[in-house]
Records
---
Amino acid sequence: MTIRPPAVAGSFYEGTPERLRAQVARCFDENPRNAAKERFIGAVVPHAGLMYSGHVAAAFYEHAELPKRFIILCPNHTGAGHFAAIYREGAWRTPLGDVAVDTPLADALMKRTQLLAEDAKAHAREHSLEVQLPFLQQLLGDFTFVPICLGYPRYELCEEIGKAVADVIAASDGPIAILASSDLNHYENQQTTLRKDQLAIDAVLALDPRELWRVVEEEDISMCGFIPTTAMLIAARQLGATSAKLIKHATSGDVNGDYSAVVGYAAILVS
């Protein structure tokens, strides 16, 4: 079996099982406990180092009723590999163990759209999907997922992949959730970032993928995961989503006290 080794253990998150479990637990401790979990179709979850955005990601994972199968869409920060890269088989490793790739689900997606290509290069050094796994491992133990890395800024690509995701989920037995891994605006001051973040958040809350695409382009919002977020919204709408909820919004400045050049993070649940 092919194992994708961790690329950012020891940097984006702690590199040993004991320290990583404690780090994830601290992220959850920064949020109120939520006993009444909420079902969802899709979500936006941030992906910076856990020391910065982990508390925002944990707010979503604490709030959501999590299934055992996921399609996780992420951006391509490295530029390597195919523009719509799917990891089809094997497992991904973190210090908390191995997570199996859902091969039947990956195959169903590849049958539905020819845009997706099996390609490990795009995923090899990509952090934005990997950092979601420790949260799910800590909460669920066993689960399966399909990793998809998107790096081509064309709305038509998002439309085809989003519709393929929706079709495959609709035809599947049991729940499958869609996670879009994305941070928001990057490296501007707090005031500018909060304004730009809110424009993107408002478009997601309106379940409007075209508006998200428009504001990111026209307002120069450096939202690294706007492509996967757009595809998630298209899929969620086709699957009957009617509402979205902002769970938490913060910036890196809230952690390190430097508000001169911050990165925005949001956790949004789509149902």
---
Amino acid sequence: MQAWDVIVIGAGAAGLMCAAEAGKRGRRVLVLDHGKRIGRKILMSGGGRCNFTNYHVEPGAYLCSNPHFVKSALARYTQWDFIALVDKHGIPYHEKTLGQLFCDDSAQDIVDLLVAECETAGVTIRLRAEILDVDRLGDGFRVATAGDELSCQSLVVATGGLSMPKIGATPFGYRLAEQFGLKVLPTRAGLVPFTLQPEDKQTLEPLSGVSLPVVAESEDGTRFAESLLFTHRGVSGPAVLQVSSYWQAGERVCFELLPAGSLTQAVAESPNQELKTWLSRQLPKRLVEALLARGELTSKPLKQYTAKELAAAERLLAAWPLQPGGTEGYRTAEVTLGGVDTDELSSKTMAAKKVPNLYFIGEVMDVTGWLGGYNFQWAWSSGWVAGQVV
């Protein structure tokens, strides 16, 4: 049986970060992954450029059943710490919008950074390692793979969530948590496009490819000012992905197509103009035609609207309601909501409170960030703090 100080299951962002940090402390570290490539989700992210962090990371940008849980790790390993690591490796990057940082060249640069950090720290990485069994061995663990019997003092689970099954996502981490008696909260797809109800699909599908800036609002009042994109399956774009994490089945989402008061101002300035003509200057023409065809608006000269009609049109444009049929699910979701209950874990070390020397980091736990580099920062921060103690 091969003995290691630390075994990390998962060669993704969190797992590699933790492994490198533990290796720097002189720990003998083995990383196991069932895939054939390191950091597959990193390579796919940000259109292949990897949105590796965000200038504006703060605890309020994370969904978690315990909103205080993320504070310690994010404070101890910040976005500035990871940016300094990117600078150390000479990786060129740029800010896109809203503080989002992307590699100039390729997401491979971030994978190479993590591999280099692991190599410097003496970490061993084994790919295509199928784990058959995990159980307690004294104070540590026995890990059986298809080819080996391994033992370790500390076991770190960095297996990610269920999003993007085509690159190997599995519920392995959740099953392992349950095996050791930890509570796992229900999971669902997050940062994911919406599908439409059949009646909406019929009238909105022709808008496929139309994009516009909106403010998307969930029923709990969470708002995101981003862009909305109509697709042949439903609606997507950053505004939709963001609000999808706050949406529950059966709820509506409202989109501010135009700021409140815009129409009233138009009546004062151009009373003789047709509503359709004026709106087509403010919004994509195909969207205006769809709103009229759906009977949500009627077009006539602005001066002919009664106060009541004007108020109704104003309300519609300031909060256009849409009730999604559902989401596209894990197939296209960027993240998984839910997972290992953070009440089971130490916020300072990511250790399981009930099981000595067992750690959970990254997306496998019930922590989900906004779109825009927040989830990668959680991987770096949670991986780093666990790496200081395993």
---
Amino acid sequence: MFSSLADKLQNTLRRLRGKGKLSEQDVDAAMREIRLALLEADVNFKVVKEFIASIRARAVGEEVMSSLTPGQQVVKIVNDELTRLLGSENKSLAQPAKSPAKFMLVGLQGSGKTTSAAKLAVHLRRSGKKPLLVAADIYRPGAVDQLKKLSASENLDFFSLEQSDPVAICKAGLKFAAHESLDPVIFDTAGRLHIDDELMSELGTIKDQVKPDEILMILDAMTGQDAVNAAVSFNDQVGISGIILTKLDGDTRGGAALSVRAVTGCPIKFTGTGEKVDALEPFYPDRMASRILGMGDVLSLIEKAEATMDRDKAIEMERKLRSQQFTLDDFREQLGQLKNMGSLEQIMEMLPGGMGIPKELKQLSLNENNFTRIEAIISSMTPGERVNPAIINSSRRKRIAKGSGTSVQDVNRLLNQFSQMQKMFKKMGAVDKKTAMKGLKKGHKGFPF
């Protein structure tokens, strides 16, 4: 997520922090680097211009220049301005007094609209809601079937009508929701490959008939400024109340996320961070800014852990980590827990940059095939080897590789990753002990691993 942009911004700010005293020339040089990084990330040039001007005006002030830690002050200013650019605060969905709440999803084809509808339903169900998915996209081949299959796989309520127009489907879906006491209703409307009058007219009619509490536009983050331009058109012609940014886990330069709030004035309410239906996160501007600047996002990490992990197991694992009793069996179990939380890369992004995540762990993939291979390697070890990997010599590695159907290189890689994770956990215990214990007292589950 924003890997290229984040690396460049963090490197620039790291150089500023290393200076005991700052001059206007130092600030100007840093601003040039930040401007270039943002433009390369496909951020709207007008947004970049205003962003840089705002930072510079604050950074060359007397308070910063005369500070004992001017570099740190500039980093704080950049963080504040980035948070403001992204929207300042989390904007939750509307909660109308009259039931059911009505959420209309709009967007172009290929943006992930239908999948996002199911993700939103799953997210709302976690808070005790009984959502209904209404399939109003009758034009894209397979759209109705796709939503029906997603609904069935997640045991979600679903509504569709054959041989009917989208407006009639939406109105009938509302009646069905009222009869079955379902709330909210999520309308998956039709998209197009491009914006046209016919699409906008249909969406406008649906809006007039169902009077949605929210019109959420689904934007593909990987399309950069094209996504921002589409958002402007939809907002001008239909009116949107919020944005769901999809494919934020892909190889995106991040320009859409950093531009769309400033250009449209509409808040980003959710981000899609994976293909699974539970890969939808509420958008917190301050947390995203912290991630981009390498400061981590511990709050989101704790929330993910609380949603997916067993409390007693987490407390027992923390005890083992603190007493340096972390074994390969524990490693296997924790990788399984991490796999349930999402991709390891996303989790690593939530840890502060100061944690010094080893390169070997950043490269650790937790896809199904790789996880099965890890399980096979560890299962081929003796109980003594799992407790004390230091005894695994060359001949033992060959035996383990043969028994697990893998190569010696695979075994070596796993042992190295285990060693790096042991070191990382030891460092976490030293750096974040007070935070973790405070979290346990408040009901958190301790370390999210």
